[in-house]
Amino acid sequence: MPFAIGNALGPLVLGRLFDSLGRRRMIAITYGLTAVLLLISAWLFARGWLTATTQTLAWSVIFFVASAAASSAYLTVSEIFPIEMRAFAIAVFYAFGTAVGGLAAPALFGALIASGSATHLAAGYAFGAALLAAAALVAWRYGVDAERRSLEEINPPVTSARI
Question: How far apart are CA 129 and CA 36, in angstroms?
Answer without folding.
Answer: 7
